[in-house]
Amino acid sequence: MDLSQMIVEGANSLVEPMWHFLWVLSTLVGTVYCGFAFLRLIRASRFPGPSQVTFGDILPVLIISGLLANLAVFINSVWNTFGTGTVTYGPISYDGAADFGRLADAINAVLTLASVGGGFYCFRGMLFLKKSCVDGYSTHGSGDYFARAMTHLFGGAALVRIAEMIEAFRQTTHLYW
Question: Biggest alpha carbon distance in the chain?
Fold first, then answer.
């Protein structure tokens, strides 16, 4: 077994479990964020007087936790801002890889692994978005976290559909393999 066959076999055996792991992880984190938001609201209402927690403190957490719980749908929505079709989460078959002959399967496997990495990149972008909105970074330095969140979200969505991004880059720059 050569290196390209090892990459292909590794990608074929890892891609579906890694997507499922990402969906479970994002749902779990979204549920935990939502639970902590409700606990914070309950703890604030235990004491008499005005609540120390406002609606503006809870709403961003609930929105971000809902987006995390539905990360697959959110990645699809982010990808649709580029103006293309729906996202499929599975092995990638890049048409341009056929020009590389025997390495075509290995190239498709590497692109598939990069696609899974893009999903985790989107997940990290959602964590940065929560940090910029909620975790006390709302005044000083939040612009940096928000910019990082948007970079991770759009970059991750582009990596999830890396074959289309490569083809668009190749056609824009008039490159030929």
Answer: 73
- CB burial of 34-69 (b: ≥16 within 10 Å; e: otherwise) equals beebeeebeeeeeeeeeeeeeeebbebbeebbebbb
**pLDDT, tens only, 52-77:** 777 778 888 899 999 999 988 888 88
Weakly modelled stretches of the chain, pLDDT under 70: 1, 83, 135-143, 177
CB 115 within 8 A of CB 92: yes
Identify the burial level of 155 via C-beta atoms within 10 angstroms of its C-beta, where 0-12 means exposed, 13-18 middle and 19 or more buried: middle
pLDDT value at position 120? 95
Place of tokens 């090892």: 6
Closest CA to 164 of 105, 102, 92: 92
Structure tokens at 70: 């539905």
